[in-house]
Structure formats: C-alpha cells, structure tokens
Specification:
The complex is a heterodimer. By secondary structure, chain A is of the alpha/beta class. Helix content of chain A is about 40%, strand content about 15%. Chain A folds into 2 domains: about 35-130 and about 255-285, Rossmann fold; about 135-250 and about 290-320, Response regulator (Rossmann fold, 3-Layer(aba) Sandwich), CATH 3.40.50.2300. Chain A is built from 10 helices and 11 strands. In chain A, strands 2-1-3-4-5 form a 5-stranded parallel beta sheet, sandwiched between helices. In chain A, strands 7-6-8-9 form a 4-stranded parallel beta sheet, with helices on both faces. Chain A has a two-stranded antiparallel sheet with strand order 10-11. In chain A, helix 4 (about 100-110) links the parallel strand 3 and strand 4. Chain B has one domain. Chain B contains 13 helices and 2 strands. In chain B, helix 4 runs antiparallel to helix 10 and helix 7 packs across helix 8 (about 175-185). The N and C termini of chain B lie far apart (about 65 Å). The chains are: A alpha/beta, B mainly alpha.
C-alpha cells in the first residue's frame, strides 16, 4: 500500500482542478457594489441557473461586480458563505434548500451588516436575511387552462421530481387551471425521486402517454423525448426550453429572478434592507413569473384560448384574480 | 383503472420500457463480468459510463455522426479501463480505492470537458438521437413484437453481446485463460498465462462496454448530456453481476427484471393508488436486494477477485 497515498492525492488534485470554476479573486475595493452567489448544485441545474442568469444580467446592466461558487457541498456551505462575508460583499444570494438552511442562518446572524437573500422554504430572519422561492404557480395555472382546453383524452400528465412544497404548488396550480375550464380532466402524476434522471423522467412520461395522457407538464428534464416519440405536446418549466424540442412544447411557466436581484441591489444601496419574504418579486405582477413564448404555437390552439389566457393574465397582474396556492402533495386521479 | 393494467398496449408498453431501461445496465454488466471474471472488481464503472455518455455526446455533436460517438465512448471507456489496470493490476493497489477514485475523477472530468466544449448554456445542446429500427416480420408479432423488435440499434447490439460474451468466457481458449486468471492466478501463471496482460485486456474491453452503456443514455434514450444522466445505473450493473452469479446471461435476465419492475412502478404511479410514491420508487431496489439475499448464498465469486497478483507472493 506504499503507493496508495500519492495516487489518491493525485486523484483528489485532478478532481479539485476539474470541479469547475471556483471563486476567483476579484479586484475588490473601488466602491463598486459586490454581489456573491453560493449554489449547492452546478449552474446547469435550472433552479440555480435562473438565479445565476439574473446575477449575470445585473452584472451587465447594473454594473455590479459578481462572483459565484457552485457545487458547494453541505459540509462546505458555511465556509464558503463566511469567506464571502469576510471579504465584505454587499449582497450574498443563492439557494439554501435542505442542507444549506442551518449554516445560512448561522452566518447571516454573525454578519448583520451584510444582506443575504436565499432560496429557502422557511421564513426570513431580521435584520438581514431575506428569502425567495420560485412562485411561478400563476403561469402554471395558465398552462393548466390551455391544457384543459387542448386535451382530447381529458387526461393530463405531470412528471415531477419529488412532492415538496415548491413542486406541489406548480402541479396543483396546473391541475386547478385545467379543471377551471374542463371538469372532466384527470391528472396523472409521477415522481422520479431525484432532481436529475432524464431517462427515468422519459419513461415516466411514456407510461403516462400509454395510459392516455395527451399533454405532459415537464417539471423535470427528460420528458420531451417521450413526447416526440409518441407525438404528444408538452409544457416546459422554469425557462423557455423551446430549443430542446421545437414543435413539442406549447409554452410553460418561466421564472425570472432579475426583478428580485434588482430589487435587492436597490434596497441595499438605499439602506432600506430588511429581512423580508421576497416572493412577490417572483410573481407575475412584478415580472418575476411569466408564460414562455409560444414560438408561433398560438394559431394551433383552440379558438378563444389565447383570449382567455390573456384576460386571466391581466386579472392576475392587477390582483383581480388570485391563483390559489395549494402545497399539498398532488396524486394521480 | 383495471383497463390500464390488462390492456395489450399496457403489456407492450411495459416490455418496451423494460428493454430500454435494461440496455445501459446490460452493457455495463457485461463489462463488469469481464473484469470480475479476470479477478478485478471495477468500481470505476459508474464514472466510466458517465465519461462514455459525455464523450459519445460531444463527439456526436462535433462530427454529426452518432456511431462515431459510440466508438468514441468505447475508446474513452478503454482508456479508463487501462487506467484501472495500471492502478489495480500493475501497481497492485486496492481495487475498491482505485475504482472509486476513477469514478470520482470521471464525475469531475466529464463536467469539465463538457463545459470546455459548450460553456454553461441555459438550454443544453441536443443531438438528433438514434431512432428505433423495426426488424421486419418480427416487429409484427402481436404483443411482444413492437416491444422487443422495434428498438434502438444499440439494444440489438447489447442482445448480440450477451451470448457473445458467454461463448467467449466458456467456449474459447481466451475465456478459459481469463477465468483461470480470476480463479487462481498462481496456477494460471504456472501454466504460462500472462496474468497482468489478461487482466489488463479484460479491464480495457470491459471499459469499452461500460462506455457504450453510457453513450446509450445520451445518444438513444435521451438526446442531451446532463450531470447525473447515469444516475446510479453503474452500481445497479455491479449488483446484477452478483445477482447473475458472474454469468452474462443470468446477469442480463436480472437487468431485464430490474427494468421491468422500474417500468411497472412508473405505471403504477399513474394509477392513482393511495400509496406513497416512495413505495413505488423502491420496488426495483427492494426486489433486487431480496433476490440477491437468496442468490448470494450460492454465489460463487471468482476466487481471485479483489486480490492483486504478485509473483513474489507465491511462496506465502
């Protein structure tokens, strides 16, 4: 075993080198507003990707400095947060779900002068920890309305990761939207039990299509391949995914974190930062949620659907109609 | 609801799903059988599949040829098999540590190379994947025809490889040497078999199969590469080797059974039974564990498995 140690060390070295971009040493100082992001997953993961894209846009449009660290393991989460806090960043954002919640709250408490805004299932904490989440149930409801009118078999499918509040909200809103225009709609829900397993997501969609579903809400990646093979349509999730499957996706809920990030930066700059729930900035009225472009699909929809959807959008934005929030676990019916 | 369960379309759909889900596991399982029969447990399997998935995808996109992608996946699998051989055979390091090291290395390296090629686009790039190829006449058989004989070309390749590996192991001189090296390397060495060479070749060929198993996921089953696309299928393949008692045919049957149960649980979820979804998700795994418990009592692992071969040890 004499040789084991150097070899293992070599492995670890290569692994660390190959783990992607770490925090690069920024120029610092110069009075520029500094934003840091801490992600538990790689930025290719849609949820963290949306936050990352918003920060990139803030860097370009609001001229702030931006650094990020991705794929932060649970054990390193606190350390990475503290590093950014010690370096005096003005605003630290990211996702704190599951393993990140406790370290985040410890660090935020230790640095009350720094603004923290994190994706979290729990409450904000005064004076400096705000929370946000993907409150895109409103466009999910609109997708349900379209699906309810579009379905020929009166059976809709949903392929989702796991029944947690964030996911249930979307699935239930999709169902409620469909039922609001079509009382006969039945919903089939499958959970793949992980955030990423495109082959399994595809098989779940195949199973639903074979048992009669003719429209699938793809909460996760992998569904479109099944829809292509079986020639049915799908709804995307999180952002415009039309390029993944042209002609297969009708539309889908889109989450835009830019209004949240912009609001955070402005509030910190004006000295008005407080630990609040930022959810309204992820909803339709503030531009944080929307329907993805139809990419020319509108004429193929049944008559009157677009009018209905547009009217509802206006009502949602003005507050005249509130999409119900239901976080209970959705099951097949 | 009962219509869903008894319909002919249900059976056909389920069988087709079982085959699709079993295929990557079958490729990887065959690769692992080759390695283990020669006495080396290759836990680099999960990482080798991921590197195969990534390399196949990247090469297919860059060259426009899916088959070149498959070849490249096999080549990268061979390289990783060679690395495993250097560590576990020639340096005689712990097979567990070397294999897990290769998987860790591959996990980071796959994402690193992918980003070098494509950056971090919001919408991942895609290829036009392999389509299904219907076999004339056979595809027309009611019930099983559309399920078994209207599949991806790689599925048929995996079927051809099962008897091929079986014949290689049990009916050829090379197979005899390979098994001898895995059972009793000292005796094989005495008989003039080059133990390190046989083990190296087994690992290299096995790596190629693992790489192709990964490429099936990104070039046939899906049309894109995502970090967790292999999703533990390599570990399932290792379990199937034990399940099949180190026999390629039995291992393939195990993989088929696993695929069938996975397809079944996804269909049960669509029925809306009042059972937590976790119960459905664990069905294939629970059955695998139960089956392994009964099978492993009689399991006959190659006697030389996990033992690095050093000539000097012979006296002791």
């Amino acid at each position: 075993m004499k040789l084991a140690n150097p070899v293992i060390l070599l492995f670890l070295l290569v692994l660390v080198v190959s783990c992607g971009e770490g925090p690069s040493a920024g120029p610092g100082g110069s009075g520029q507003f500094r934003v840091a992001a801490v992600f538990q997953t790689a930025i290719e993961e849609p949820w963290d990707g949306v936050i990352h894209q918003a920060c990139l846009r803030a860097r370009d449009q609001l001229k702030v400095q931006y650094e990020f660290t991705e794929k932060v393991a649970a054990a390193d989460f606190e350390k990475v947060l503290r590093e950014y806090a010690e370096r005096g960043f003005d605003l630290i954002v990211g996702d704190a779900f599951l393993a990140g919640e406790e370290p985040l709250r410890r660090v935020a408490k230790d640095y009350p002068k720094i603004a923290f805004a994190f994706g979290s299932e729990f409450k904000p904490a005064a004076p400096n920890l705000s929370v946000f989440d993907n409150w895109i149930h409103e466009p999910a409801y609109l997708c349900g309305v379209i699906a309810g009118r579009l379905t020929r078999t009166n059976t809709l499918g949903v392929v989702a990761a796991m029944p947690i509040a964030e996911v249930n909200r979307l699935v239930n809103a999709f169902r409620d939207g469909a039922l609001s225009v079509n009382k006969n709609v039945k919903l089939k829900v499958a959970y793949i039990g992980s955030w990423f397993d495109p082959p399994k997501a595809k098989e779940a969609a195949m199973a639903q299509i074979e048992s009669g579903a003719d429209l699938i809400f793809a909460e996760r990646f992998g569904v479109y391949e099944a829809c292509k093979e079986k020639k049915v349509l799908a709804f995307s999730n999180m952002y415009d995914q039309e390029k993944l499957a042209p002609g297969v996706i009708v539309t889908g809920p889109v989450w835009d974190m830019y209004p949240t990030i912009k609001h955070c930066i402005e509030t910190v700059k004006s000295g008005a930062w407080a630990g609040v729930d930022l959810k309204e900035w992820s909803m339709m009225a503030r531009g944080g949620a929307s329907l993805a472009s139809f990419h020319g699909f509108e004429p193929k929809l049944p008559a009157g659907v677009m009018t209905l959807v547009n009217d509802l959008s206006v009502k949602i934005k003005s507050g005249a109609f509130r999409v119900p929030v239901d976080e209970s676990k959705a099951t097949s019916k | 609801m009962s219509d869903d369960l008894v319909g002919l379309a249900f059976v056909t759909g389920l069988l087709a799903a079982a085959v699709r889900m079993a295929t990557p596991v079958v490729f990887a399982m065959l690769g692992e059988v080759l390695a283990e029969r020669a006495g080396v447990l290759n836990l680099g399997i999960e990482g080798t599949m991921l590197m195969g998935a990534m390399t196949g995808f990247v090469v297919a996109i860059k060259t426009g040829s899916l088959w070149l992608g498959v070849l490249a996946a096999a080549a990268v699998g061979m390289l990783l098999g060679l690395l495993m051989a250097v560590l576990a055979v020639h340096l005689g390091l712990s097979q567990h540590v070397s294999g897990l090291g290769i998987t860790l290395l591959s996990t980071g390296l796959a994402m690193f190379i992918y980003r070098l090629c494509f950056g971090s686009p919001t919408v991942p790039p895609t290829v036009v994947p392999f389509g299904q190829v219907a076999i004339p006449v056979l595809a027309k058989i009611p019930l099983v025809g559309p399920a078994l004989f209207d599949q991806y070309a790689l599925v048929y390749l995996s079927w051809a490889l099962i008897p091929a590996v079986s014949v290689l192991l049990y009916r050829t001189k090379i197979g005899l040497r390979l098994r001898a090296v895995g059972e009793n390397p000292f005796a094989a060495d005495t008989a003039g078999v080059n133990v390190p060479l046989v083990r190296t070749v087994s690992l290299v060929c096995g790596g190629a199969l693992m790489g192709v198993g990964g490429a099936f996921l990104t070039l046939a089953h899906q049309n894109m590469f995502l970090m967790d696309v292999v999703g533990g299928r390599g570990w399932i393949a290792v379990a199937m080797v034990i399940f099949g008692n180190w026999d390629p045919v039995k291992g393939a049957l195990g993989a088929g059974l696993f695929g069938l149960l996975d397809g079944l649980q996804l269909r049960l979820q669509a029925l809306g039974l009042a059972v937590p979804f976790h119960v459905f998700l664990i069905i294939p795994y629970v059955v695998t564990v139960l089956a392994m418990m009964s099978v492993s009592r009689k399991a006959m692992a190659p006697a030389g498995l996990l033992k690095p071969y050093r000539r000097e040890d012979r006296g002791g």
